[in-house]
Amino acid sequence: MHRAIITLGQTIGAQATIMSCADSLALNSAILLAAVVLVAMLSKGTTGGGGAHQHRTASRLSPFLNANSSSDDRGPRPDRLDNALQRMSLLLLEGA
């Protein structure tokens, strides 16, 4: 009788271990699924992750980014676009 109680206790302990692992796996899967859904719902931001060099690059390219803006709705002016392309090519040729 004593041996049967010990065997029953060991069986219950083994089953409890298996059930706790299954519960942990289910919880981890639910958290991962929720994270995937939240990441999919995020909208893409306007700034990129450039790291340490982003500020310097953004400040150097700001004249080029603003060169194509015009006050009317007809689009960028060709002379401003050509000017921006020339400045960009000079910057690249200087090795900056």
Q: Can you characterise this structure?
A:
The protein is mostly helical and 96 residues long. It folds into two domains: 1-40; 54-93. It is 72% helix and 0% strand. It has helices at 2-41, 54-66, 78-93. α2 (54-66) packs antiparallel against α3 (78-93). The longest helix is centred in the N-terminal third of the chain and has 40 residues, at 2-41. The chain is rod-shaped and about 100 Å long. The mean pLDDT is 75.
Helix content: over 70%
Ends distance: 86 Å
Low-confidence stretches: none
Structural class based on helices, strands and sheet pairing: mainly alpha
Average residue-wise pLDDT: 75
How many beta-strand segments?
0
In terms of topology, how is this protein built?
Blueprint: H1 2-41, H2 54-66, H3 78-93
Helix pairs in contact: 2-3
Keywords:
single chain, 96 residues, mainly alpha
Q: In brief, what are we looking at here?
A:
With 96 residues, the protein is an all-alpha fold. It folds into two domains: 40 residues; 40 residues. It is built from three helices and no strands.
